[in-house]
Every structure is written in structure tokens, then in C-alpha cells.
Write a structure and sequence with these properties.
Blueprint lengths: L7 E5 L1 H10 L6 H10 L4 E5 L9 H10 L4 E5 L3 H10 L3 E4 L19 H13 L3 E6 L3 H9 L4 E5 L1 H8 L3 H20 L3 E5 L7 H5 L4 E6 L1 H10 L1 H16 L1
The chain binds pyridoxine-5'-phosphate (PXP).
Length: about 250
């Protein structure tokens, strides 16, 4: 894998399901959103099947596996139940994320270093099944090295702290977080890991991260689904794509 190639955009459709589930019916349909996202230039679709099924459902994953023409990035916690589901579907990519029931969203990265043995055993069958295993972690050398040791092919760096600092107007903290993301992207790449990034990205925060040559994929959800209320999903994605391409030069 070489740095600097075209940056892929993975569109996370979880929050279409959040809106659907608010009324308990079938509308709006995340599969329809996924098809639209594909047509608008998404290079992949990301969906997180949470243990509590608060947004994406098992049936959504069945449907996505059937209808998608772009790769599915299946986000899941490192539990036996999720491993069984992933092994049944064999999606293109599996992204292992930490999950706490009480959290509103995935708040931090995975503690790989503390759970190295368990995670190495957990991801081995997924890799054998042909899934690209990605580990969602903070921009932290210890976690990157542990992800590398357990045999992950990909890491996804958590951009949440950078985006939060930007939203709160904390310029120094934002720049510090961005510098850590830049340095750790380069470090992970030097170990042979493919680098992805995501969480909380929007039109204001995407370009500095998109400009890192080692980053090969961004996964973006909440902002795009929110923005689609105002301009439609296709145009919201197209604008994100344009900003990413511009940043990439
Ligand atoms: N990447 C990962 C691993 C995530 O867990 C999420 C949120 O589900 C995202 C990217 C997308 O974050 P956001 O919805 O804030 O754009």
C-alpha cells in the first residue's frame, strides 16, 4: 500500500437508522441512503451494528450485504456475537470499535495494548475469512504498535478530540490534536499499516486530515446525514468529496 493515492470516502449511514427507529417503522430506509450514497460517489458504506441495536439492525446488515456494489465496512465491538455475525457475512472490512452502552457515540479509541492477546485471537478468524481488519484507536504510539502486533492490516484514527476542540474554539488543543494525528499517521504507515481516520469530521475539519498523504480513507456519518436535511444526501456527499479532493491537491 502506498501513501498519496486517491482518498476514499466511506459514508456511515447509522443515523438514517436512528431517525427511522425514532418512529419504530421502516422509514427512512438506510438501504436507500446507501444506494444514494453510492451514486453520489461514496467509495464504501460504513455501518455500526451496536450490541443494543440502537440504530442499525441485523436486517439492515443483511440488506446491505445484498444490495451494495461498493465495499461494506462493518463496525462492531469485539464480542462473540458480533464475530459470529461478521463471519456469516464476511464483509469487505471489519472495524473493531470500543462500545459502552451508556455512551452517545464511540467516545474513544480501542484499548488494544491492554487486551493484546484477546484481540489477536479475536481478529484471527476474521482475517482468515478474508475480511480486512481495522482497529479504531486514538493517535497514540502504544496503541498503534499493539494494533500492528496483533496482525491488523488497517488502523482508523479517532478524529473526535480534534473535531471537538475545533467546535469549542480551542485553537491550541485543536492544533495539538491535529499534529498528533499527522505524526501518528506517518508512524503507522511506516509500520506497514493502512491508515484511515474518522469521527466528527465536517466541512470545516475535513481538509487538514484529508491532506495527510498516509490517510487512505475517511469515514464520515453524522455530519453528512445532518447536512442532507438541508441540501440532500447526494449534494452533501458531493461537497465532502470536493473538499477532500481539493485538500489532497
Ligand atoms: N469511524 C468510526 C470507527 C466510528 O465509530 C464512527 C461513528 O460511528 C465514524 C467513523 C463516523 O463518525 P461520525 O458519525 O461522527 O462522522
Amino acid at each position: 500500500m502506498s501513501a498519496g493515492k486517491k482518498l476514499r470516502l466511506g459514508v456511515n449511514i447509522d443515523h438514517v437508522a436512528t431517525v427511522r427507529n425514532a418512529r419504530g417503522g421502516a422509514y427512512p430506509d438506510p438501504l436507500r441512503a446507501a444506494r444514494l450514497a453510492q451514486e453520489a460517489g461514496a467509495d464504501g458504506i460504513t455501518a455500526h451494528l451496536r450490541e443494543d441495536r440502537r440504530h442499525i439492525s441485523d436486517a439492515d446488515i443483511d440488506g446491505l450485504m445484498e444490495v451494495l456494489t461498493v465495499p461494506l465496512n462493518f463496525e462492531m465491538a469485539a464480542t462473540e456475537e458480533m464475530q459470529r455475525i461478521a463471519l456469516r457475512h464476511k464483509p469487505h472490512a471489519v472495524c473493531i470499535v470500543p462500545e459502552k452502552r451508556e455512551e452517545r457515540t464511540t467516545e474513544g479509541g480501542l484499548e488494544v495494548a491492554r487486551e493484546e492477546n484477546r484481540l489477536a485471537h479475536f481478529i484471527a478468524p476474521l482475517r482468515e475469512a478474508g475480511c480486512r481488519v481495522s482497529i479504531f484507536i486514538a493517535a497514540d504510539k502504544r496503541q498503534i504498535e499493539a494494533a500492528h502486533r496483533i496482525g491488523a492490516e488497517v488502523i482508523e484514527l479517532h478524529t473526535g478530540a480534534y473535531c471537538d476542540a475545533h467546535a469549542e474554539g480551542h485553537v491550541e488543543a485543536r492544533d495539538r490534536e491535529l499534529a498528533a494525528l499527522r505524526e501518528m499517521s506517518a508512524y503507522a504507515h511506516s509500520l506497514g499499516l493502512e491508515v484511515h481516520a474518522g469521527h466528527g469530521l465536517n466541512y470545516e475539519t475535513v481538509q487538514p486530515v484529508a491532506a495527510f498523504p498516509e490517510v487512505m480513507e475517511l469515514n464520515i456519518g453524522h455530519f453528512l446525514i445532518g447536512e442532507s436535511i438541508f441540501r440532500g444526501l447526494g449534494p452533501a456527499i458531493a461537497e465532502m468529496r470536493r473538499l477532500m479532493d481539493e485538500a489532497r491537491g
